[in-house]
Amino acid sequence: MSSPSFTLPSDQPEQRIPLWSTLIAGMIGVVAIVVMLALNGGSDPAPPAANVNGPEDLSRYLPFDGEKAYQHLKDMCDLGPRVSGTPAMQKQQQMIEDHLTQHGATVVRQAWEVRHPETGQPVTLTNLFGRFHPERTERILLCCHYDTRPYADEDPDNPKAPFLGANDGASGAAALMELTRHLGELDTKYGIDVVFLDAEEFIFDKERDPFFLGSTYLAQRYRSADINFRYKWGILLDMVGDKDLQIYQERNSLSWQDTRPLVIDIWRVANRLNIPEFVRRPRHTINDDHVPLHDIGGIPIIDIIDFDFPSPGYGPKYWHTQQDVPENCSAASLAKVGKVVLTWLQELE
């Protein structure tokens, strides 16, 4: 077995994998393809009652600083669009690596090459790991994607315009960066891997180009590598910075037998913390990075996502438009999501 430093076989920049290999398990399609289903079906029998004995004493829980997370979001957006393989993405990688190192993580770059969908030139993609207690064989996976789509394809004025991806890309990464300040302090038997996934949507033609390159590559390597650890649970954070935060239970996460208990547990934590933005019923079925990680890698992982940015189908929307900017995100939203995840981590048994 390899050492638990997560040096997976073939994690070398010169490694090439054909783009069609990422189509395993039906990964062709539009990222975050959403099926708007009825709001009442498939949830647990009834939401738990509100705390009737007054607010819970939360003093034992570690703090999550939404303002610090929001500053990370702004710092990433200051780099401009972070499309996979571009200089802005490379600067972002260094920014995140420096932060992880500062807070005690063992940093691993899982790099490989693909062909650029438009030019055919080689592009190096990188999944960036921050590992806490890498010697532990029972582990938790916390992940996000940190690339931005090349074009604002949903923009009504200019669907070929570049865009900042403040919520769709930077928000999950910003929340994970703030979480890393505390992961070394956690009193838990689990090791934790914080992973920034590349090329979730390295998409120039959505009818041709495959999605989820980073998560698919990680899932394939995790499934086939000779490693001495396994992920007990996984959480994907995506689009968690929306000012008008509404996080419903994602239907894939709720319907998979191995992940449903985690969904229930996370929303119970949110209820105890009196964070009503975690709405305890399902709304969307979303094809996101958690799908290849679950279906290919066998990792019990859920998606915490607010797909209504602010409200697809009901007025203006910011998703994949030039309006996906820091001003349409908030520190308060990042704080609520981060607090739920950090509290859940502290309570793990």
TrEMBL record:
<keyword id="KW-0472">Membrane</keyword>
<dbReference type="GO" id="GO:0016603">
    <property type="term" value="F:glutaminyl-peptide cyclotransferase activity"/>
</dbReference>
<feature type="transmembrane region" description="Helical">
    <location>
        <begin position="20"/>
        <end position="39"/>
    </location>
</feature>
<dbReference type="InterPro" id="IPR007484">
    <property type="entry name" value="Peptidase_M28"/>
</dbReference>
<dbReference type="InterPro" id="IPR040234">
    <property type="entry name" value="QC/QCL"/>
</dbReference>
<keyword id="KW-0812">Transmembrane</keyword>
<dbReference type="Pfam" id="PF04389">
    <property type="entry name" value="Peptidase_M28"/>
</dbReference>
<feature type="domain" description="Peptidase M28">
    <location>
        <begin position="127"/>
        <end position="344"/>
    </location>
</feature>
<dbReference type="GO" id="GO:0008270">
    <property type="term" value="F:zinc ion binding"/>
</dbReference>
<keyword id="KW-0012">Acyltransferase</keyword>
<protein>
    <recommendedName>
        <fullName>Peptidase M28 domain-containing protein</fullName>
    </recommendedName>
</protein>
<keyword id="KW-0808">Transferase</keyword>
<keyword id="KW-1133">Transmembrane helix</keyword>
